[in-house]
Amino acid sequence: MVGTGRWVRRTGIGVVATMLATTPFGAGPARAAEPEVRLAGAAWLDAGGANAAVTAVRSAAGGTVRNGTADTASLTGAGIGVALIDSGVAPVAGLNQPGKVINGPDLSFESQTPGLQYLDTYGHGTHMAGIIAGSDPSSGFQGVAPGAHLISLKTAAYDGAVDVSQVIAAIDWVVAHRNDPGLNIRVLNLSFGTDSIQPSLTDPLSFAVESAWKKGIVVVTSAGNDGAARVTMPAANPYVLAVGAADPNGTDTRTDDTIATFSNRGTVVRHPDLLAAGRSLVSLRVPGSYIDTQYPTARVGDNLFRGSGTSQAAAVVSGSVALLLQQRPGLTPDQVKQLLMKAADPLAKPDPIGSGAGQLDIAEASTLIMPLNATQVWAPATGLGSLEASRGTSHVADSVSGVELTGERDIFGMPWVPLTWTTAARNGKAWTGGTWNGSVWSGPGFTGTSWASSSWALVTWTGRSWAGRSWAGDTWAGRSWAGGTWTGRSWAGGTWAGRSWAGRSWA
């Protein structure tokens, strides 16, 4: 049985490049019909080169400085919630302590398979989570903001299959629940994007991130990994932080840093706002995940993994924003953006477009006076454009029938009515309990560690039900993480075989 899935990314949101694949579990829930797809920033990129430790990256950005005017060494991001919309987070060492990861609703196609809910079967989300806020005293691994807590919203399945409607639903959930007890969501990390060419003024995904920004959430997006004169969607939105990747060139000093060859340059109209280290960053590994089996040379010891991309660069910025907000919790998103851009260090050989304001310097940002006139005045997005156009060139499709999800409808076949949605999303009320856009996507309440799941109704666009989807009778249910492996399961050799991740997807 064949299952594939993919979606494209634009302006910093990773496009998942997923192609036809034969899985050890039987049919996956969705597939990509085209030979190559990507949510910008979501497919794995191993650019080789010298490994870069997150602690070294933070140090190079001044994140461990203590002097008369800055004390970033004592900042950990404590109390700051960073929402991560990605492929989930696995309970590996460094992310498994109580309160570190809070699961929002699992909106992925795997949410209907017991044992796969919330877990990161791909490996991308866990890598980002480690960079942002990982903390493992036993190994010494630390992310940029080890004291911050993460709110994980899983949207992508093991093969990256995800529709743009799932991502928009996840963003709306973050906005609706940003002030829930214990969450305090101040940052949203989006390490992916689509290749939508729809204007950011009308694109629904652009409107969703702008609404989050205007509700007080600093939205950090990846610019894309094609080395192209564009950024992915939603990084194209001028309000949010669009992050490109810097290449440390194997050293801890910044004098030789350059723009990574894969980092999208953008245009005069819209380009990365700033850069952060994005080549060969070492973060947490998910044994047995897709990228772990497909890229064994990227493993660093038993628990760590190397990856490159504007995805990683965005995660570095998200963690740094958590530090800044711990220091000055009253900062608005516009003030955070202005501080980071004003404090950025120009490259020795700057690119007037692709490098934006320069490279992240969190220590300098922490010393600057709070800007009083930081309000951005871009034309507000309307969100009244096409959901289909927001998908760009990538579509999920039923793994058996091959029917693609196209047109102005979400994954449940519900019609997309822009005026109705934008009114609710603008007010942070797009979710009613577990219902979004007229369908039940999740349970209505919190169980203490995770948002409750629910059984999905029949999917009318294919005539198939996602509920009860079997993975060949051998799911990841009940897997133990003891010793860093999926106990009792060998994932060596040909598992997840046949999957091609061409290009630079999931940056």
CATH C-level category: Alpha Beta
The major β-sheet equals: 8 strands, mixed
Oligomer: single chain
Strand content: 5-15%
Q: Which structural class is indicated by helix and strand composition?
A: alpha/beta
User: End-to-end distance, in Å?
Assistant: 28 Å
Residue-averaged pLDDT, rounded?
Answer: 83
Rounded to an integer in angstroms, the radius of gyration calculated over CA atoms is 20 Å
Secondary-structure element pattern, one letter each: EEHEEHEEEHEHEEEEEHEEHHHHEHEEE
Number of helices in the DSSP assignment: 10
Number of strands: 19
Q: What general outline do the C-alpha atoms trace?
A: globular
Active site: 86 (charge relay system), 124 (charge relay system), 311 (charge relay system)
Pfam family, one: Peptidase_S8
Domain Peptidase S8/S53: 77-347
GO molecular function: serine-type endopeptidase activity
Explain how this protein is built.
α2 (124-133) runs parallel beside α6. The protein has one domain: Peptidase S8/S53 domain (Rossmann fold), CATH 3.40.50. The longest helix has 18 residues, at 310-327. The strands form five sheets. Strands 3, 4, 7, 8, 9, 10, 11 and 12 form an eight-stranded mixed beta sheet that branches. It contains ten helices and 19 strands. It is of the alpha/beta class and 507 residues long. The model is unreliable at 1-41 and 463-507 (pLDDT under 50).
